[in-house]
Amino acid sequence: MGTQLAKKITWAIKTFSSSETGKICSDQFVVGGCKWRLIVHPKGNNADYLFMYLEVADYESLSPGWRRHVCYLLNIVNQNAVKRSKQNEEEKWFDARSPRWGRLSMFSLNEISARDSGFVVNGELRIVAEIDVLEVIGSLDVSEETSTIMETTDFNGFQLLPSQVRN
């Protein structure tokens, strides 16, 4: 089986509204022979915005010269009205000097945390990330590993777990 170069994952942060930590990291997942993770700062990062980014999880231990050219979409799901979801799409090079990319000023904490906004429901925030590795420089060849992040499949506009799709 070859290296998977694209993946769509859903990360449900169940304790988002009660989190007291400065940073929450997702479980690691593998795309393009590289381990990745999502990171959010639920209380902002010295600003009144949710700081969210994609990071190469083990970048400090990788061999010199590795690079990944990636197109990625980070989407904060509005659980009441999908059309109101907030998203940020970027195309970046990830390497030892730039192992993480994200955007600070797109997601207002006041809007996300507002009562009845639909972004935080029962204390839970959902993030959908789509990662497409366009070019691989340097071989990392990390094998796929299981995690508690849900991989989903698009079926007629609905996101379903693999176990919910009949072959």
Annotation field: number of helices = 1
Q: Identify the CATH class.
A: Mainly Beta
- The rounded Rg comes to 16 Å
Low-confidence stretches: 144-148
Q: What number of domains?
A: 1
Total strands: 13
Approximate shape: elongated
Arithmetic mean of pLDDT: 79
Helical fraction = under 10%
What is the CATH H-level superfamily?
Apoptosis, Tumor Necrosis Factor Receptor Associated Protein 2, Chain A
The CATH level-2 architecture is identified as Sandwich
CATH topology-level fold name: Apoptosis, Tumor Necrosis Factor Receptor Associated Protein 2, Chain A
Strand percent estimate: 35-45%
Element string (H = helix, E = strand) = EEEEEEEEHEEEEE
- Main sheet? 6 strands, antiparallel
Q: Give the structural class.
A: mainly beta
Separation, N- and C-terminal Cα atoms: 19 Å
